[in-house]
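Subgroup meeting minutes
Present: P.N., E.W., G.H.
Scribe: E.W.

1. P.N. recapped why we're keeping a running log of single-chain structure predictions: easier to compare across weeks, and new members can see raw inputs and outputs side by side.
2. G.H. added today's entry (706 aa).
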Amino acid sequence: MRSKHCAVLIVYIVLLVVPVAESKVMPVDYDTGRNRLIGSIISHLLPAQHFEHKPVDDKLAMAAYDLYLRQLDPRKRFLLQSDVTVLGDDVQAIDDNLLRGQVVLPDKAQQLLARRIIEVKSLVEDIFSAGFDPYKEEYFETDPKKLTFCQTNSELSLRWYRALKLQVLDEYLGEVEKQAEELKKTERNNGLSSSGVVDQALWHSSLEKVHKRTQNYFHRLQKMTRQEQYNRFFDAVCRAFDPHTNYMPPTSKEDFDIHMSGSLEGIGALLREDDGHIKVVRIIPGSAAEAQGQLQAEDTILSVAESNGDPVDISDMSIREAVSYIRGTKGTEVRLGIMRTDGARLVIPIVRDVVKIEETYVKSTVLKTKSGDAVGYIKIPGFYRDFSGAEQRNVTDDTRSELYKIKQKNIKGLILDLRNDGGGSLSDAVEVSGLFLPGGPVVQVKNSQGMVRVLEDNDPNVAYDGPMIVLVNQFSASASEILAAALQDYGRALVIGGAHTHGKGTVQALMDLNRYLPLLHFKKYDDLGALKLTIQKFYRVDGGSTQYKGVIPDIVLPSMLDYLESGEQYMDNSLPWDKVDNVGHIPWAGAHLAVEAARKKSAVFVAGNIQFAKIAQESLKAKQRSKNTLVADFLRGVLKERQELEQARKEAKAAGILEDAEADGLDGAKEKKTLEEQLAKDPYVDLCQYLLNDTSVTSVSPATRK
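Output recorded in log:
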């Protein structure tokens, strides 16, 4: 978030190519003294400046070690248990060493890992020489958290055999499907994919491709520098404080550009590095990824290819290295091999493009209920504010303008859609709240010194005073949670959505480590990098934090996101929920929806709605699939699993709960639908219209919640 109240660093890396005026220095070479200095500075700076003032002690050392180990060998395919035991000998000393400016673990880890990479590379060559039996019924555990480190090289070899066999099977079936696509649709089932009998030429070709890809993977691993291991260790120490606190090493200008804003070009996705995997956080409104329609939050990106080129395995890559493969020139196609949380795998083609800025702005329309009444709808994709552009455009003015337009249609109620809204400007979260409230406190901000500031709506005017509903989901975060919470606390709006919003109730700031150089070392070393650390926390007017729990809707509906473990409560070392004092506020006394009456009405609506029934059914199936991480590792088994997933997508599409591009597969960019066309098949919007059209659930008495 960025506003007149506070400045906040963009938390995640955006896959965008951005021209900027300044550049960062190139990555620096390893220097013992420099790394000791970084370790000493962060070990003293973090406890002093971080919101929670966690001490650098044995507990934090253990958390940092766990994070670092998971980055070092995330899929447990290199280190043996004996290696982990050796590394674990230093855990208790991590905190003491840091405070003394001594860093031991990264060197020890790199030496062990380098030796194991050479040994595993030899094991893998033996595996490819022996080949794979596509018919032998075997199973492979895909969740590293369910695995232990291998005790022997024989166990390690078996783990690699099954992992590589699955890759070859996936590659083979991908080639089969590609070949089938080139034939007439009537010849699609030509015996290759449905008979379970391997085409030897295609099998050999697939094996060679996976072999080459694996060799490139080892080559990349062996290029990892000593300094990169130190950078990862420092980042693990920072993330032991909370998931949004990071060490940011010096980078080249190209990498530094990722964090800036301006003329945006790329696929338009926010990513995070998660235990050796690159995961999608959210899709940027107006981006190429949104236009294509298939990439989703929580997808894991496994591979990247240019158009019809060979895919590059990006497993175990740092996020910066992965980004370098995904970014590219406008108009070029990138093909992302992804895995859904429920285990489904597909290749998504995206033509890189600039972000269509108009798609990121507030949109509105007027919907008609079955009785012919008008209901207003406003979509806020994000809380934007242009501080530098000539237009000075911001979400508050745009929302006010859209409200004015739809009010001319004599709307009976308003739907404010904050689904997938990742946040933005804090000042606009306060000001947009003020469009619907007659003044008063909106949010409380507590800093690391324990001081609490109350941010208020100082404008007594209300832009819209009719009944309203706010739609949220698990990807509504930060500023959107502040708005939803304020309108809920005042009884101003009914909040409807999944089990909870994201729960991102913290503020981060960027601190340049070079500013903390002791005079003795001034300009002796190259750039030390920076810290992004959590310095503030948000609280509702009733005193409860939006952190961790998020906003719990008044009416919880079935959602296709229910099976996802997405949000602060699922992240390592996330800050807990807590409370400050209730600042007091006057409940909304105007027209609004009565919570209990609306719950009863919505329960009846949902029970009789085919789409909601299908959503609940498909979400349950997806949850079961996501928990079944032991997958088939033989041809017929993989075919069966793929066919089941394909059938599930077809059923979801038939029920109207899946976008056409997602259900139809690799058919490029989806045809752009109008806002009205998108909303016509939206069961959540249907429910909102139903409730706003029912006068038995509206009330003009002071709003109270139960």
